[in-house]
Every structure is written in structure tokens, then in C-alpha cells.
């Protein structure tokens, strides 16, 4: 912020507060989008401070039940909102694309200031990063207000097998806002829950293998899993540099694309991956591909075997049949009954080599992250394991154990075992998705929910997950469009056109009557 603006901020606070007071009477928080928020800003119906206060109140009302939020930085968020309001009142001609928009980031993403980044572990409480993660730097540059951190499966679901999705010692058990007994699914659960329950319009998740796609599916929100390297992993607790990516989880494709455009790009702290992926960023950005006619002419491969496993006559079978009819009517060319022969191996992390590589990469990545923290109670994976042994704060931590952490600690870098795993994964990619896309000249593949998560994970491929329907019990399910590296423009066109034609998403019914 320019120095002169610091002195002008106090002069605008009274006006901003007055506008915020009237906001609750005219602004509709339910299903608010970036566009509707910015329109309310421009019309004087809402301020960023007023919006932050609305979301804080909503979180206070809902989170004791849903456990979507780990930590809030209310003071920091309100100060950032005041600066955004002051800039708006100054009449700046070129406000950034996420100006004044509150954002929740997953609890494995570092934000300098008042927030921890703990990956759900009590061992990292009290840690402080020396600087923002790369994606947080870009969010702030785009005008976003960092509101707090979203809950997750501890260590991004890499503590031990059998740990419930959405659970961590620090955040508790996240609940699905549609059907509390249903799964929240995988590690970016809090981000998906918060977006679904209208606790915030924009959240950020991370994915190794399914952690954006699956919670987006089960919580009826849109998730974009970008090509690995399109977004920086600097300052993020990750499992695998080969597979991990950072992406938006929002309620609409348009919002998710706006956020994606803000966070992509080269980062010298994640130089190799972001340099390679920067070649895929289109001139003019991603918003140009929000094309309502985006399905026309697209060749989309339907992966039937190993993916569409619904009982005959089920709601899912009927819904997907209708969706395919809709896509055809909108000009898509559907190539049906495609099969990837190696899917059983790809879906088995041990057979594919994925598990062996993840175990080695996790230790290397985590120790590197810890070494860069300004302050932290632990400096290595070994110390985290010791902490957990000494502090079994809940019976369930002892029940689940920490076998993945222990196995990871026993690794010693990228050796012959890991090299063989890399070779096998590369072969599975070449003979799997790469082959089926090239032979059939596909623009994208389509699969239900997160069923293609491992297929897309092992090669660092992108995906967009869009709400597709609800079971008879009210549990959401999604449709997923995936493609080769750098295919985000086509995936955005396809998913936006599909979303606008179907408009499936609805807010959680039990929350629609919740006062804000």
C-alpha cells in the first residue's frame, strides 16, 4: 500500500462502518459470488469490513457443528478489509480481481502474521512462517483478505490408514453440511465444507491424490485441481512434489476460475515445477474461457469400466445419462465405453509405486518446510513422531497410530526403490491417460465424482469437479472433467458450459434457514 494511503485509511473508516451497517439489510450472503460481492461494493450496499463481519458471524454460528475452520485471524482480516474499503473509496480505477474478498486457506498453507499452519497436527501449534506461501502472496496481491485456515485430514490424510476423512487432533471431525453422517472425503474437507455452507465464497485446497476432487464432490462445490506446477507449493506442507498442487474450491466455476487466474505463475521458491508449468498459462488468462457454448465441438471420452459402478436403475445412473444427453445436445462429441487397462494397478498405491514414492518425498518435503519456519516447536519428521508418542491427547490418536509417518521417517531420500517407482508411474501415465487421449483425439475425459483421482494424480494432470446431483438420501455427487497437462482452458470451457446448462448446486437444506 502506498505510504500516503496509510494516513488516509482512518478518514474512511467511519464511512465504511456506516455502509457495513446497511449491508445486512440489502446484501444476500447466501450463494454470494465474487461478481455479486464486487457489485455490492460498487453500489455502496456492502463493504469488505461488513462482509468479513458477516462471514465471521456465520462461522461463529455454524462451525461449532461443522468443524470447517481451524483458526481465524479476525484482527488481521478486518485491518485488510479496512484497507480495501479505503482504496475503493479513493476511486482507484484498477482494483485487483479479488479486491476485498475474504478467503479461507487450508491449514497446510503458510500465511505470515497471526495464523499457524499445522496440517491439523498439535505438534506444529506455535509455528510461524518467515513469509507467506507463494499462493498466499498472490492472493494478497490480487486483493484477497486472508480470513483464516480451513480444517483437513491430519497431515493431508497421510498419518495412518483408517483415520476418518476430515479429522485431525487440532480441528476435530469435520461434518458434511448436507448429510452429517456422510463423508466429507479426503483432506481438503474444511475448505469444501466452508464453501458449501456459505461460510466464505473462496477457499483454497491442496491435492496429492483426490484431496480437492473428492471433498468438492461430496460437498456440492466446484474444485479445480490445476496441473502440477501451475500454482506454487512454496510455503505449503505437501506430500509429493510430483503430485501435489494447490487449487481453488468455490461454489461456482466462474469464482474458481477467477481465483485460479490470480494464483498461477512462476515462483522462484518452487522454481523447477512452476517454470515448466508456466508455459501452459494462456495469454490473457483463464477467464476468457468462461464460455457458455464451451461444450460445442469438444471430444469427451467417457471412462466406463472401473469408474461408473452404480447399481442399475440408481439415481446416479439416471442422472449421468441425462447429463450425457445434455452434453450431446450442446454439441459435445462423446466417445463412450473407453477403458484404461492398467486402472487396477493405478488404483493400488502399492502396486503402482505411488506409496513408496510418497513416503520418501513426504519426509524430504516436510523437513525442508520445517527448516524454513521462523519459529517452530519441531524441526523434523522424527521430532513430530516423538511429539505424538509423548502427547497421545485423544484415545483415537493412539487407535490410529502414525504408521505412514514412521514409514516415511525410515526412508532415505530418492534411491533405487523410488527410482523404480518413478519409472513405473511414468509408464502407467504413458500407457494410460496419455494414450487414451491421443488415440481418441480427446479434449477431456469424464468420470463420476473423484473416481479418476489416482489416474489424474500420478501424472500431475488437471481436473475440474462440478456438482452433478444428489442421492435419495441427499448426499451430493459430482462430475469430473480431466485432461492432459495444461488442458485447463478446455476443461474450463467444458465445465462452465455444463454448469450453466444444468445448475445442479443448491445450498445445504438444513442451513438455508440459518440466520447470518
Automatic annotation (TrEMBL):
This is Uncharacterized protein.
